[in-house]
Amino acid sequence: MISKYEHFMKSIIFVLLLFIKSFTIAQSTSYTEQFRPQFHFSPEKNWCNDPNGLVYNNGLYHLFYQHNPFENVWGHMTWAHATSKDLIHWKNLPIAIKEENGIMIFSGTCVVDENNTSGFAKNGKIPMVAIYTGHIENVNQSQNIAYSLDDGVTWTKYSNNPVLDIQKKDFRDPKVFWDNSKKYWVMLLMLSAEHKVQFYASYNLKEWKHLSDFGPVGDTSGVWECPDLVQVPIEGNTNKKKWLLQMSQNATMQYFVGEFDGQTFTNENSTTDIYRPDYGPDYYAAISYNQLPKQHLPTAIGWINNWNYANNIPTIPWKGAMSLPRTLSVKKVNENWVLIQKTDPAINSLRKKLVTIPDASLTNSKKIFPAKSTQFELQLSITPLEKNTVSAVRIAVNDNTYFEIAYNNETQILSADRSKTGSDDFSEQFKKMNIYEKKIALVDNKIDLQIYFDNSIAEIFVNNGEAVFTFQLFPKKNNLAIEIVSNNKTFFSNIKFWEMKNIWK
Ligand code: FRU
What we know:
The chain is built from two helices and 34 strands. With 505 residues, it is mainly β. The radius of gyration is 24 Å and the shape is globular. Beta-D-fructofuranose binds next to strand 1, strand 5, strand 10, strand 14 and strand 18.
């Protein structure tokens, strides 16, 4: 007979074992959970927001990102780290820069200091230098640096941090790049509450001199965050370039295009219209890669989420994902520069077998595709053939639930609507933010759509990248069908469908 004591101990051990087991299950993930993106980057577990320190070095694309190592909500900001050989397949690495002494590691940049301007090199090893905002909650934001002598795996914070502190509470998100004509580093920073981008210069990444300010201008409805300045080609003109200034203003993004002379940015676009890198709800804090190989087009990655509901999205054990890498160029449309974004061509290597769906002329009817999936790329052209026509494509369809992208040729408005996608009761804000629109003219009588759908992410590229819409949606498990619909007469053509491979297998 076992004594009461033994019985008690056995029960304790059993409970302990159960606890340890559930803990280890919670710790490991196979990237197969419901809603888990299969060809977009997301962290193994816990919270992520902005991409940070995007830089290319020695054959690897680095992706650092805002991360909470302890929980699946925002907090304890730390730089987590992943690398990729092709910008598509990612390898998760140990945490790079940790929160310490009550100072969180907010967003910033990474550079490869090839000429050892910082003096951090040792034994001929070129330093990678991270420039980030040190955040003391409700008190101060200052700029700090850390360096790595092992290609970004381990990091040492500079002993004389901060390198720039102007005693402000909202002064953040440094973007740093080498200005080859001036032979100095340029840093952009946000005076977030004042809606200003500040420009600074430095010869050694340690001492910074103020150059100029840009703003307030354009959209000032939310705080300004994460400035990014990069020189981009003009479409169809290989010799000429323009400077693209992208920024986030909570909770969307805007851009300006013009010139930068090493000191001041001059915007050439009209400021009566707002130009956005993305017209959907879920693209934020995008920044571009530093020091890409010469032949590589400038490329940006953004965070797929929205501060209005970011902490409440129903994804476990992670929250937040990164967009597909987008190449950047500009094109003049009616006196203004329009940003053209295309997915990096490396993405095409993920396409499985091409399924061609025959052209279809629909009059007040719908057609359901033979292909069924929640992980695909779909291309099609929409040509409305009558006045007052609404032509739509629906994905994640089942019964009366679907995500719809529709074009109205009367209003010339392209809209995307996630109000009927299934689940949205995890957040009142998310429920309200469901329809997004933009006026887009037909080109040769048609609208071209390229839709990437990845379980809970839809990235929609319109007319060869002239506008992009990014959405999160959380459909029911068996919402797999795709259909096209028209109220009047529409011709749907060039329909191509590929299931996409999984990047984590
Ligand atoms: C943008 C942002 C940045 C800040 C970081 C904190 O999403 O608010 O301004 O550095 O996130 O996690």
